[in-house]
Amino acid sequence: MDLKRRPRRLRASETIRKMVRENHLRIDDLIYPMFVMPGEKTRVEVSAMPGVYNFSLDEFVKALDEVVKLGIPAILLFGIPESKDSVGSGAYAEHGIVQEAVRIAKKHYPELYVITDVCLCEYTDHGHCGLIEQGEILNDPTLDLLAQTALSHARAGADMVAPSDMMDGRVAAIRDLLDKEGYAHIPIMAYSAKFASGFYGPFREAAGSTPQFGDRRTYQMDPPNGNEAMLETALDIEEGADLIIVKPALAYGDIIYRTKERFGLPVAAYNVSGEYSMVKAAAANGWIDEKRIVMEALVSMKRAGADLLITYHALDVARWLNEEGRL
Protein backbone atom coordinates (compact mmCIF):
# COMPACT_ATOMS: atom_id res chain seq x y z
CA MET A 1 0.00 0.00 0.00
CA ASP A 2 1.46 3.37 -1.07
CA LEU A 3 0.17 6.00 1.33
CA LYS A 4 1.71 9.38 0.53
CA ARG A 5 -0.33 11.16 3.20
CA ARG A 6 0.34 9.80 6.67
CA PRO A 7 -1.04 12.08 9.42
CA ARG A 8 0.73 9.95 12.03
CA ARG A 9 4.05 11.45 10.96
CA LEU A 10 3.05 14.62 12.80
CA ARG A 11 2.12 12.69 15.95
CA ALA A 12 5.39 10.81 16.34
CA SER A 13 6.74 12.73 19.35
CA GLU A 14 5.63 15.25 21.93
CA THR A 15 7.84 17.85 20.28
CA ILE A 16 6.14 17.66 16.90
CA ARG A 17 2.71 17.34 18.51
CA LYS A 18 3.33 20.63 20.32
CA MET A 19 4.59 22.29 17.16
CA VAL A 20 1.48 21.53 15.12
CA ARG A 21 -1.09 21.82 17.93
CA GLU A 22 -4.07 23.84 16.75
CA ASN A 23 -5.50 25.06 20.05
CA HIS A 24 -3.81 26.00 23.30
CA LEU A 25 -4.77 26.83 26.86
CA ARG A 26 -3.08 29.89 28.33
CA ILE A 27 -3.22 31.39 31.79
CA ASP A 28 -4.40 34.61 30.14
CA ASP A 29 -7.57 32.75 29.06
CA LEU A 30 -8.69 32.21 32.65
CA ILE A 31 -11.30 34.01 34.73
CA TYR A 32 -11.64 32.70 38.30
CA PRO A 33 -15.09 32.91 39.98
CA MET A 34 -14.91 33.87 43.66
CA PHE A 35 -17.51 34.20 46.44
CA VAL A 36 -17.42 36.78 49.24
CA MET A 37 -19.52 36.94 52.38
CA PRO A 38 -19.79 38.93 55.64
CA GLY A 39 -17.68 38.06 58.68
CA GLU A 40 -14.04 37.84 59.64
CA LYS A 41 -11.37 35.15 59.46
CA THR A 42 -13.76 32.81 57.68
CA ARG A 43 -13.48 30.65 54.61
CA VAL A 44 -16.22 28.06 54.18
CA GLU A 45 -15.64 25.30 51.66
CA VAL A 46 -18.59 24.55 49.39
CA SER A 47 -19.40 20.92 50.17
CA ALA A 48 -20.15 19.97 46.56
CA MET A 49 -17.17 21.93 45.18
CA PRO A 50 -13.93 20.85 46.87
CA GLY A 51 -11.39 23.66 46.77
CA VAL A 52 -14.01 26.42 46.29
CA TYR A 53 -14.76 28.70 49.23
CA ASN A 54 -16.95 31.49 50.48
CA PHE A 55 -14.50 34.08 51.82
CA SER A 56 -14.89 36.81 54.38
CA LEU A 57 -13.24 39.95 53.05
CA ASP A 58 -10.02 39.52 55.04
CA GLU A 59 -9.66 35.95 53.78
CA PHE A 60 -10.61 37.07 50.27
CA VAL A 61 -7.56 39.36 50.17
CA LYS A 62 -5.32 36.46 51.21
CA ALA A 63 -6.84 34.26 48.50
CA LEU A 64 -6.21 36.95 45.89
CA ASP A 65 -2.50 36.74 46.62
CA GLU A 66 -2.40 33.22 45.17
CA VAL A 67 -4.56 34.22 42.19
CA VAL A 68 -2.18 37.04 41.31
CA LYS A 69 1.00 35.03 41.90
CA LEU A 70 -0.27 32.32 39.55
CA GLY A 71 -0.75 34.95 36.86
CA ILE A 72 -4.54 34.62 36.54
CA PRO A 73 -5.58 37.96 35.02
CA ALA A 74 -9.21 38.25 36.13
CA ILE A 75 -11.78 37.24 38.73
CA LEU A 76 -15.57 37.12 38.56
CA LEU A 77 -17.13 38.21 41.87
CA PHE A 78 -20.30 36.90 43.53
CA GLY A 79 -21.59 38.08 46.89
CA ILE A 80 -23.59 36.61 49.75
CA PRO A 81 -25.18 39.47 51.74
CA GLU A 82 -25.71 39.65 55.48
CA SER A 83 -29.47 39.84 54.97
CA LYS A 84 -31.93 39.48 52.10
CA ASP A 85 -35.21 41.17 51.19
CA SER A 86 -37.85 41.09 48.48
CA VAL A 87 -36.15 43.76 46.34
CA GLY A 88 -32.55 42.55 46.66
CA SER A 89 -31.37 45.85 48.13
CA GLY A 90 -27.98 44.41 49.07
CA ALA A 91 -27.15 44.07 45.38
CA TYR A 92 -27.03 47.82 44.78
CA ALA A 93 -26.07 49.07 48.25
CA GLU A 94 -23.09 51.45 48.21
CA HIS A 95 -21.33 49.36 50.84
CA GLY A 96 -22.68 45.97 49.81
CA ILE A 97 -20.49 42.90 50.06
CA VAL A 98 -19.44 42.88 46.39
CA GLN A 99 -18.85 46.63 46.34
CA GLU A 100 -16.53 46.32 49.35
CA ALA A 101 -14.77 43.32 47.83
CA VAL A 102 -14.13 45.32 44.64
CA ARG A 103 -12.63 48.19 46.62
CA ILE A 104 -10.36 45.85 48.55
CA ALA A 105 -9.26 43.95 45.46
CA LYS A 106 -8.41 47.11 43.52
CA LYS A 107 -6.61 48.63 46.52
CA HIS A 108 -4.33 45.64 47.06
CA TYR A 109 -4.05 44.40 43.46
CA PRO A 110 -4.81 47.30 41.10
CA GLU A 111 -3.71 45.35 38.02
CA LEU A 112 -6.08 42.45 38.72
CA TYR A 113 -9.08 42.69 36.37
CA VAL A 114 -12.25 42.60 38.48
CA ILE A 115 -15.51 41.54 36.85
CA THR A 116 -18.74 41.60 38.86
CA ASP A 117 -21.78 39.41 38.41
CA VAL A 118 -24.88 41.61 38.17
CA CYS A 119 -28.00 39.86 39.41
CA LEU A 120 -30.50 39.95 42.27
CA CYS A 121 -30.90 36.25 43.05
CA GLU A 122 -28.26 36.11 45.81
CA TYR A 123 -29.86 39.14 47.47
CA THR A 124 -33.60 38.39 47.30
CA ASP A 125 -35.40 36.42 50.00
CA HIS A 126 -37.27 34.51 47.28
CA GLY A 127 -34.12 33.58 45.33
CA HIS A 128 -35.31 34.81 41.94
CA CYS A 129 -33.44 37.19 39.63
CA GLY A 130 -36.18 39.81 39.45
CA LEU A 131 -38.92 41.51 41.39
CA ILE A 132 -42.03 39.43 42.04
CA GLU A 133 -45.70 40.31 42.06
CA GLN A 134 -48.33 37.64 42.74
CA GLY A 135 -45.86 34.90 41.87
CA GLU A 136 -44.78 36.46 38.55
CA ILE A 137 -41.18 37.55 37.92
CA LEU A 138 -41.48 41.12 36.64
CA ASN A 139 -39.20 42.04 33.77
CA ASP A 140 -39.32 45.81 33.24
CA PRO A 141 -39.49 46.94 36.90
CA THR A 142 -36.36 44.82 37.54
CA LEU A 143 -34.27 46.60 34.91
CA ASP A 144 -33.65 49.75 36.95
CA LEU A 145 -32.42 47.72 39.94
CA LEU A 146 -30.03 45.78 37.72
CA ALA A 147 -28.72 49.01 36.22
CA GLN A 148 -28.29 50.50 39.70
CA THR A 149 -26.38 47.37 40.73
CA ALA A 150 -24.02 47.67 37.77
CA LEU A 151 -23.50 51.38 38.48
CA SER A 152 -22.67 50.70 42.13
CA HIS A 153 -20.08 48.14 41.04
CA ALA A 154 -18.53 50.59 38.58
CA ARG A 155 -18.39 53.29 41.25
CA ALA A 156 -16.61 50.86 43.56
CA GLY A 157 -13.94 50.28 40.90
CA ALA A 158 -15.08 47.23 38.91
CA ASP A 159 -13.38 46.87 35.54
CA MET A 160 -16.31 45.08 33.87
CA VAL A 161 -19.89 44.12 34.72
CA ALA A 162 -21.58 40.86 33.78
CA PRO A 163 -25.40 40.76 33.95
CA SER A 164 -26.59 37.19 34.48
CA ASP A 165 -30.30 37.68 35.23
CA MET A 166 -31.71 37.07 31.72
CA MET A 167 -34.28 39.86 31.93
CA ASP A 168 -35.14 41.23 28.50
CA GLY A 169 -33.55 44.64 27.91
CA ARG A 170 -31.16 44.59 30.84
CA VAL A 171 -28.03 45.23 28.76
CA ALA A 172 -29.58 48.41 27.29
CA ALA A 173 -30.67 49.60 30.75
CA ILE A 174 -27.18 49.03 32.18
CA ARG A 175 -25.41 50.60 29.19
CA ASP A 176 -27.63 53.68 29.27
CA LEU A 177 -27.10 54.30 32.99
CA LEU A 178 -23.36 53.64 32.92
CA ASP A 179 -22.94 56.03 29.98
CA LYS A 180 -25.11 58.69 31.62
CA GLU A 181 -23.10 58.52 34.86
CA GLY A 182 -19.68 58.76 33.23
CA TYR A 183 -18.80 55.07 32.96
CA ALA A 184 -18.94 54.65 29.21
CA HIS A 185 -15.54 52.95 29.43
CA ILE A 186 -16.87 50.01 31.47
CA PRO A 187 -17.48 46.94 29.25
CA ILE A 188 -20.49 44.67 29.61
CA MET A 189 -19.96 40.91 29.42
CA ALA A 190 -23.49 39.59 28.98
CA TYR A 191 -24.72 36.15 29.95
CA SER A 192 -26.53 36.10 26.61
CA ALA A 193 -26.81 32.33 26.07
CA LYS A 194 -27.66 31.22 29.59
CA PHE A 195 -29.68 28.02 29.73
CA ALA A 196 -31.97 26.71 32.47
CA SER A 197 -29.53 23.92 33.19
CA GLY A 198 -29.20 21.05 35.63
CA PHE A 199 -25.48 21.84 35.89
CA TYR A 200 -25.99 24.77 38.30
CA GLY A 201 -26.85 22.89 41.51
CA PRO A 202 -23.55 23.29 43.41
CA PHE A 203 -23.40 27.03 42.59
CA ARG A 204 -26.73 27.58 44.31
CA GLU A 205 -25.26 26.11 47.47
CA ALA A 206 -22.23 28.40 47.15
CA ALA A 207 -24.28 31.54 46.46
CA GLY A 208 -27.31 30.67 48.61
CA SER A 209 -29.52 31.46 45.63
CA THR A 210 -31.89 28.50 45.30
CA PRO A 211 -35.38 29.79 44.36
CA GLN A 212 -37.86 29.48 47.21
CA PHE A 213 -40.62 28.59 44.76
CA GLY A 214 -40.80 27.48 41.14
CA ASP A 215 -37.70 27.64 38.98
CA ARG A 216 -35.99 29.98 36.50
CA ARG A 217 -37.32 28.47 33.28
CA THR A 218 -39.48 31.50 32.50
CA TYR A 219 -36.38 33.66 32.02
CA GLN A 220 -33.40 31.34 31.47
CA MET A 221 -33.38 29.58 28.09
CA ASP A 222 -34.76 26.16 27.28
CA PRO A 223 -31.75 23.81 26.73
CA PRO A 224 -32.96 22.33 23.41
CA ASN A 225 -33.01 25.78 21.75
CA GLY A 226 -29.99 26.90 19.74
CA ASN A 227 -31.64 29.47 17.47
CA GLU A 228 -33.04 31.23 20.53
CA ALA A 229 -29.48 31.59 21.84
CA MET A 230 -28.57 33.38 18.62
CA LEU A 231 -31.55 35.70 19.03
CA GLU A 232 -30.68 36.50 22.66
CA THR A 233 -27.08 37.18 21.70
CA ALA A 234 -28.03 39.41 18.78
CA LEU A 235 -30.34 41.44 21.03
CA ASP A 236 -27.65 41.86 23.70
CA ILE A 237 -25.08 42.98 21.13
CA GLU A 238 -27.58 45.45 19.69
CA GLU A 239 -28.12 46.81 23.22
CA GLY A 240 -24.40 47.28 23.83
CA ALA A 241 -22.82 44.02 25.02
CA ASP A 242 -19.06 43.91 24.43
CA LEU A 243 -18.44 40.23 25.25
CA ILE A 244 -20.76 37.21 25.30
CA ILE A 245 -21.00 34.37 27.82
CA VAL A 246 -22.26 30.91 26.92
CA LYS A 247 -23.38 29.05 30.06
CA PRO A 248 -22.98 26.12 30.69
CA ALA A 249 -20.05 25.20 28.47
CA LEU A 250 -19.38 21.47 28.38
CA ALA A 251 -22.68 20.40 26.81
CA TYR A 252 -23.01 23.58 24.74
CA GLY A 253 -19.99 23.51 22.44
CA ASP A 254 -22.30 23.96 19.47
CA ILE A 255 -23.60 27.21 20.95
CA ILE A 256 -20.06 28.46 21.58
CA TYR A 257 -19.17 27.65 17.96
CA ARG A 258 -22.27 29.26 16.49
CA THR A 259 -21.89 32.38 18.65
CA LYS A 260 -18.27 32.94 17.64
CA GLU A 261 -18.87 32.19 13.95
CA ARG A 262 -21.94 34.39 13.65
CA PHE A 263 -21.01 37.42 15.76
CA GLY A 264 -17.22 37.50 15.99
CA LEU A 265 -17.19 39.13 19.43
CA PRO A 266 -15.06 37.73 22.26
CA VAL A 267 -16.85 34.71 23.75
CA ALA A 268 -16.46 33.43 27.30
CA ALA A 269 -17.35 29.82 28.06
CA TYR A 270 -18.60 29.38 31.63
CA ASN A 271 -17.38 25.99 32.87
CA VAL A 272 -20.02 25.83 35.59
CA SER A 273 -20.24 24.33 39.07
CA GLY A 274 -21.86 21.03 38.11
CA GLU A 275 -19.19 20.40 35.50
CA TYR A 276 -16.52 21.09 38.12
CA SER A 277 -18.17 18.89 40.76
CA MET A 278 -18.49 15.91 38.43
CA VAL A 279 -14.78 16.00 37.64
CA LYS A 280 -13.82 16.43 41.30
CA ALA A 281 -16.05 13.56 42.43
CA ALA A 282 -14.77 11.19 39.75
CA ALA A 283 -11.16 12.15 40.47
CA ALA A 284 -11.63 11.64 44.22
CA ASN A 285 -12.82 8.11 43.48
CA GLY A 286 -9.83 7.42 41.26
CA TRP A 287 -12.00 6.93 38.20
CA ILE A 288 -10.32 9.59 36.02
CA ASP A 289 -7.07 11.47 35.63
CA GLU A 290 -8.20 14.90 36.86
CA LYS A 291 -5.55 17.01 35.13
CA ARG A 292 -5.99 15.25 31.81
CA ILE A 293 -9.80 15.50 31.89
CA VAL A 294 -9.82 19.17 32.94
CA MET A 295 -7.34 20.21 30.28
CA GLU A 296 -9.17 18.22 27.60
CA ALA A 297 -12.54 19.71 28.53
CA LEU A 298 -11.23 23.27 28.56
CA VAL A 299 -9.36 22.97 25.29
CA SER A 300 -12.57 21.64 23.72
CA MET A 301 -14.17 24.97 24.63
CA LYS A 302 -11.29 26.84 23.01
CA ARG A 303 -11.61 24.59 19.96
CA ALA A 304 -15.31 25.43 19.75
CA GLY A 305 -14.44 29.14 19.61
CA ALA A 306 -14.21 30.41 23.19
CA ASP A 307 -11.69 33.18 23.80
CA LEU A 308 -12.04 33.18 27.60
CA LEU A 309 -12.73 30.44 30.14
CA ILE A 310 -14.62 31.15 33.34
CA THR A 311 -13.73 28.13 35.45
CA TYR A 312 -13.44 26.98 39.05
CA HIS A 313 -10.47 24.92 37.88
CA ALA A 314 -8.50 28.12 37.22
CA LEU A 315 -6.07 27.76 40.13
CA ASP A 316 -5.19 24.18 39.23
CA VAL A 317 -4.93 24.95 35.53
CA ALA A 318 -2.62 27.90 36.19
CA ARG A 319 -0.40 25.72 38.39
CA TRP A 320 -0.23 23.01 35.72
CA LEU A 321 0.56 25.50 32.98
CA ASN A 322 3.23 27.18 35.10
CA GLU A 323 4.80 23.81 35.84
CA GLU A 324 4.93 23.09 32.11
CA GLY A 325 6.23 26.56 31.30
CA ARG A 326 3.15 27.27 29.21
CA LEU A 327 2.18 30.80 30.18
Automatic annotation (TrEMBL):
Active site: 194 (schiff-base intermediate with substrate), 247 (schiff-base intermediate with substrate)
Keyword Oxidoreductase: no
Molecular function, one GO term: zinc ion binding
Swiss-Prot/TrEMBL cofactor(s): Zn(2+)
Protein residues bound to Mg(2+): 232
Pathway: Porphyrin-containing compound metabolism; protoporphyrin-IX biosynthesis; coproporphyrinogen-III from 5-aminolevulinate: step 1/4
Binding site for 5-aminolevulinate 1: 204, 216
CDD domains: ALAD_PBGS
Chain residues that bind Zn(2+): 119, 121, 129
One cellular-component annotation, GO: cytosol
Catalytic activity: 2 5-aminolevulinate = porphobilinogen + 2 H2O + H(+)
Residue positions binding 5-aminolevulinate 2: 273, 312
Any one GO BP annotation for this protein: protoporphyrinogen IX biosynthetic process
Top enzyme category: lyase
UniProt function note: Catalyzes an early step in the biosynthesis of tetrapyrroles. Binds two molecules of 5-aminolevulinate per subunit, each at a distinct site, and catalyzes their condensation to form porphobilinogen.
Entry's family note: Belongs to the ALAD family.
Quaternary structure and partners: Homooctamer.
PANTHER family (alphabetical): DELTA-AMINOLEVULINIC ACID DEHYDRATASE
Record protein name field: Delta-aminolevulinic acid dehydratase
Organism: Desulfosporosinus acididurans
Name of the gene: hemB
